[in-house]
Amino acid sequence: MAEQAGGYGTVVIYTSWPSAVEAEAAGRAIVADGLAASVNIVPGIVSIYRWQGEIERAEEVMMMFKTREELAEPVTQAVRARHPYETPAILVLPVIGGDPDYLDWIDAETVLP
Question: Which CATH number fits domain 5-109: 3.30.70.120, 3.30.565.10, 3.90.660.20, 3.40.50.920?
């Protein structure tokens, strides 16, 4: 992964949750722990997926955490620990560019273990 401003790679971690209340509680805790600089919570998504051989439909909220590449695994573990689903959707997406000041802000607001 290419290095960003501040010398760190940046990633966005995508996940979905069954409710905004659960998502906000998890997002607040993960940001408070310094694992992510911010999280966006987008309500009102509809997910259609195959689960155990059946086509399912669920109303969910989407979350996008912004963090350092080095914190992707701790964020993933924190999401899993708080998530009610057996197999939560968690994707780590590389950021290939962005505003240098914003990328520096992400570095400044996150804490490496």
Answer: 3.30.70.120
* 19 within 8 A of 61, measured Cβ to Cβ: yes
User: Over the stretch 50-88, which tens digit does the pLDDT of each residue have?
Assistant: 999 999 999 999 999 999 999 999 999 999 999 999 999
69 by Cβ neighbours in 10 Å (0-12 / 13-18 / 19+) ranks as middle
Task: Enumerate the domain spans of the chain.
Answer: 5-109
Q: 1 pLDDT exceeds 70?
A: no
Q: Tell me the C-alpha distance between 59 and 43, whole Å.
A: 9
Contact 37, 106 (CB under 8 A): yes
